Each structure stands twice: as structure tokens, then as C-alpha cells.
Amino acid sequence: MSILANLDGPADLRGLDEPQLARLAAEIRQTIIDTVAETGGHLGSSLGVVELTLALHRLLESPRDRIVWDTGHQAYPHKLLTGRLDRFHTLRQLDGVGGFPRRSESAHDVFDGGHAGTGLSIAEGLAAARDIRHGLQRIAVVVGDAALMSGLSLEALNDIGQRRTQLLIVLNDNEMSISPTVGAFSHYLSQIKLSSAWRQSKSVYDSLVERLPVIGPTALELSRRLRRSVVNFAQPGQLFEDLGITYIGVVPGHDLHALLETFEAALRLPGPVLVHVRTQKGRGFRPAETDQIGFHGAALPPMMLEPAADGHHRGATGSPGTSTQPGVSAASARNGKVQPAMDDPVSGRPSMPTESMADDAAPASTPSPEAKKHPNYTAVFVSELTELAERDRRIVGITAGMPTGTGLSKFQARFPDRFYDVGIAEQHAMTMATGLALGGMRPVVALYSTFLQRAFDQLVHDVCQNDVPVLIGVDRAGLVGEDGTSHQGMFTLPVQRQLPHLVVASPKDEQELRSLLHTALAQDHPFALHYPRDAGFGLPPADPEVLPVGRGEVLREGSDLLFVGFGPIVARVLEAADALEAEGWSVGVINARFAKPLDRQLILDQARGRRLLVTFEESVVTGGFGTGVLEAVEDARLTDPAFRDLTVRIIGIPGDRFVDHGSVSDLRRVLRLDASGLADQVRETLEALRGTPGRAEETATA
After folding, report:
1. How confident is the model over 264-317, as pLDDT tens digits?
2. Are residues 170 and 214 in the same domain?
3. Which of the listed residues 530, 561, 591 is the one where a domain comes to its end?
4. What is the SS3 assignment for 603?
5. Which residue has the higher pLDDT, 387 or 364?
6. Above pLDDT 70, what percent of the chain?
7. What pLDDT does residue 6 have?
8. pLDDT computed for residue 39 by the predictor
9. Of these residues, 79, 138, 454, 497, which one is catalytic?
10. CB-count exposure of residue 661 (10 Å: 0-12, 13-18, 19+)
11. Model confidence over 565-597: pLDDT tens digits?
12. Are 229 and 172 contained in the same domain?
């Protein structure tokens, strides 16, 4: 009788003894080898984690407990244990079982993965959500030795160690040989550290030594140094210990008894625990054992299956072939000045380092005395967010070393247990937010537009691919000013327009910002809310409302020209419309609100019969908001003659150069994005078209 075929789910593993689990491991390997020989796939990594997977699923109660597979190409045994045996022959085929974890396939798949280095951030987000909700779920993450070296993983390890997040990290060491030391002394020290007696005695000893008169603190420090030196000598995990993560290892990864015993004890320890497991890539299939690079990727050398008496499927291959990319991520380097950590004045705890930012200390331009009195968009955003968080405990705030600049320091003061400053680690901020959203939270990530550029892959791969409700507060959208070329928030909008599931919005004023914030938190998809560093218009407070996603509004009717603006530039668009109406033009104005999804029908209805449609945005014009409007008009031209004489002019920041430093008001004047510059650009377009006021209305009447 096949054990694998008779499993209803991973809970059945708890009814099997160790010899039965060993038989099951052999069946899983055979199934993977037979299937991948037909379909292709990531063979070596999956064969190496069979025992590891069995141990985790026997001890944890998935899907209540969460098992995160970093990268995910090693999750074939996990798929077989969670109800996909009958369809496993469709692996990586059209409409078949995916080669990576997919939430659409199973409740046991925590997130849709595929890129290396994401697992630790996802796991920390899940654990943070659990802690906020006072849940009891146990969180485990399996990360490979290569993925552990990615910049995102290192960002996450630093944050996990500092926060002492309760989770189990399984380091699957199968290729890079991070730590070749596997000896009796190392094993003995691991057993001591896993014991509760050691943990308790160490704490009591430290407390007693510290209370010694005069010499206590010095003696305690010397004692801790001695312990560290012993650990460093006997074990390879001092890096993790220094980060605040308990290191256990090295554990033989194909000894099921050792894995069960170690994981069970590790799950009882407080704080983050890393268990270093040594596995063999391609275990059980000799060609994959000897050619670990060739059998890593989805495009494998030819496989001929020849089972051997000793249980190893020796196989035979054709030419070794060229290796596919093994997916080893290089650690990212960071430049920039980091301020030393200081005690936070609100919580009294050490705060994360923050990046030195000149634009936090000075306004972008010299405002009028009246404008100084008006709160800026950042202040309005955080004030409304804090009020909403009073009523909704799912709302959490995240930033990357910029709590003051993004205004979230005020959120932190009110909700210290729901605020995360991860330091200068935008990638980790986005992926951790994905984990929080998967755990039922409503994370709000506030980042400057220019720094959001660092986290593009995480926005694509983690937030949007998993289609989770992460709200991204895109602060400093548009022109920023004196910090110059590196800080202008001009590139984010075109990047975001291309991403599935992501809603992209920007308000015309500070009161609409409040409504869009309510809108973002009331829906279940990723949402990017762009707002500038400008002061608001001083509008009287209005009750915010949840707006229909993808719906714009007509601010002014007109028969000659149609202006469509996105964001606070709309106020200048209205001024430009006033100037042109004084010259006899009838100008309609639309506040788009949403760049994605675009209110195509509203724009087309208003553009019908017009000679000129002009779009306005404070963003690079290449691929931005105006391009989306142009695409809609071009589609309409194919079937509707009413649009064939319509000219579309896109006005924004030119896409052929960077914008240098200067006050925002000066830059808008130079780029002709102030009200008079907008009007002049429209006049030039009308002159080129030889347009005269009233012509569109006369044409429509005729």
C-alpha cells in the first residue's frame, strides 16, 4: 500500500511512526523524479528537502501554522503532502500544478513566490500580524544558503533579531557550505542551548552577576564575551547570535529523527531561532547528486530512470548540458550616511537609524505667510490614518528609516505596538507588509517616491503578484526641490501603471486625500496613493467618503477643449482654464483621481466632438498618466469616428533628462508646470492646430 496515496493531508503524518515516514520519504522522491523526468522542473532542491518537509509538517499544524518557502522551487514535497498528488503529473503545465507555491492551489501555500530572498520578510510580517492579533500560530520559514546572502534577507535578519520576533528559521544549507564544521562539540553545544535548564540558568546567572557591587557590569560583560568566544569556536553561527537570533546546528538534514527532535525543541524557545540543516541537493538521484548545478534549474539534462537495488535512482544523462542560473542572489550594497541609533523620545526604546535628509529640515520653497498656516499633505495623511487606526486595529504603519519625514512618528506615538521602522531597508518594508497583509492586517507603507524605486521587485513580486491590500503612501510625489536629481519623485507613476492589481490614485486637494485614504483601506487590492510635499490649500474640513475606485469627476463643462488632470496639479489646471476662457475658449476640466484604473468612459464621453484633449501630471510624461489617456483615445478611434479628429497633448515633466535642484516653485516655472506655463503650452498647441474658439461646438452642431 502506498502511504503517500492514502494521505488526506499533512495532519495524517502524526499517525505514522519513523519507519513509515522513511518509506514515505522514498515514495515522495520517486514521485518527484518520475514527474520531473516528464515535465522538467527544479529537481535537485526539492529532492534535498524531503525529510525536512516531513518534519515540519508533522510538528506544525498547517494551514493554521504557517510554513513559508523562500523562493519556493523546493516546495514539491510540500505540494505532495498537501493534497496535490492526483494532479502532480501536470506540474508546470498549462492549467496544471505550479512550480512554485500558489495560494490559488492550496490553503497550505502561504504566498505566491518565485524570487529568492523574500521568505524571511514574509515570515516576519506574518509573525507581527499574529502578535498584534494575540494569535497562537507558529511561523516557520525555510531559506536556502544562497538566498540567505541576498540583501533583502540580510535586511530581514537584522530586523528580526532586533525585534526578537518569535519564529523558526530553517537554513537549508545544500550548496554554498556556509559552515563545514559538523562535529561532536558543535552538536553538544546545540543540545545545551536547546535545553530549558540552560536558558533559565543563563538568565539567573546574568542577573546575579550584574548585581555584584562595583564589578557587576564588568564581570557580566566578560562573562558574555567568554560565552560568545566558545560559541564562535565550536559553531559557525556567531553572526546570527550577534544579530539576536539563537543559532542551532549543524543538523544532518536527512536524519528524520534528528530533525524532529531539534525542530520540536526549537519551536519551544523564545524569540527567533535559526536551525542550520545540512542537506544534499539531488538526494536520491545519483545524476542530480553529482551534477548539482545542472539539475538545479527547470531546464534539466536528459533523464533516463534506472532504479538501483540500493534505493538510489542512479539514472543516466545525456550530455551534462549547460547550467541554468542557480538563483544565487548577490548581497545588495548600500551607500548613504546613517545616524547613530538614539533613544526614541516617545517609547524610550532605541530607535532605528534614519537616513540624513536635508529636505526634512527645510521647506521646498518660500511659501507665502498664508500658505505656512496650512498643513501639508503628509500631515493630513498621517492625521487621517491615525484617526482611522483608532477604529481599526488591523491598520499598521511601516516606514524605512523615515518616521519623521513621512509623518509616521505621530502614528508611532499613538500606536507603538503597530508601527515598524525597518531602517534603510525599503525592500524589506514592502515584503514584510505583504506578510502582514497575508496575516490579516492592513499595512500602510509610507515611503518617499524616490526611495520606493529601491523596492520595485518587491512591489511586483510580493505585493502585486499576491494581490494583497497593502497601501503605499507615495510621499514626495512629483517635484521635490532642492535635493535635486536623485530625489525628484517623477518616475514612480509610469512604473506603477504597468502592474496588475495595483490601484494608483492621487488627490486634487488635501480633503480628497482623506477620502482616497478611506477608499484605499476599504478595498482588498494593493493601492498606491501619491501626494506631494506641498502645503494644502487650507480648505475647510469635509466628511471623507469612500470613492468608487476608478471613477473621476467633472469639475467644469466645456465645448472646445477638455483638460484632464491627475493629482494636485488640477488646481493649476483650473487656473489655466480660467485664463483660456477669458480668451474665448470653452474649457471642460476633469479631475481623474485615478491613473489606474482610468475612468475611460468619463473621459471619452467628455472628449466626444472636441478638437483638443490635454492631460496634465507632475510626473515624467513617458508612459505616465497622459499615456494612459492617449491609449484610451487611440482604442476609441478604431471604432468611433467622433474621435478621429481629436488631438491629444500630454503635459508633464519631460522624459529625456533629470531635473536639477531648485525650489519647487522655481522648478515648476522653468518646466512650465505652473498655471501660466500650463496655459502657454496649451496656447502653443492651439496655434499649431490653427484652432479658434467655438469651432468644436460649431462642428458638433453641424
Report:
1. 999 999 999 999 999 998 898 888 877 776 776 656 677 767 654 444 444 544
2. no
3. 530
4. helix
5. 387
6. 79
7. 94
8. 86
9. 454
10. middle
11. 999 999 999 999 999 999 999 999 999 999 999
12. no
Beta strands in 13-73 (DSSP E): 66-69
Residues 52 and 121 both lie in one domain? yes
CA 10 – CA 54 distance, rounded (Å): 8
Q: Looking at the domain assignment, is residue 642 inside a domain?
A: yes
Exactly one of 281, 533, 610, 649 is catalytic; name it.
281
- Active site (annotated) includes residue 617: no
Could you report the per-residue pLDDT of 138-153, keeping only the tens digit for each?
Answer: 999 999 887 887 888 8
Decide if 281 is catalytic: yes
Q: Which of 289, 384, 426, 510 is labelled catalytic?
A: 426
- What is the extent of the structural domain holding 266? 4-180+236-317
Whether 105 shows a pLDDT value over 70: the answer reads yes
Contacts of 416 (CB under 8 A, 6+ apart): 346, 347
CB 478 within 8 A of CB 349: no
Residue 307 CB partners (closer than 8 Å, separation 6+): 313, 314
Quote the number of domains for the chain. Answer: 4
64: annotated active-site residue: no
CATH number at residue 640: 3.40.50.920
Max alpha carbon distance in the chain (Å)? Answer: 100
Measure the CA–CA gap between 146 and 134, rounded to whole angstroms.
33
Beta bridge partners of 251: 277
Are 453 and 427 found together in one domain? yes
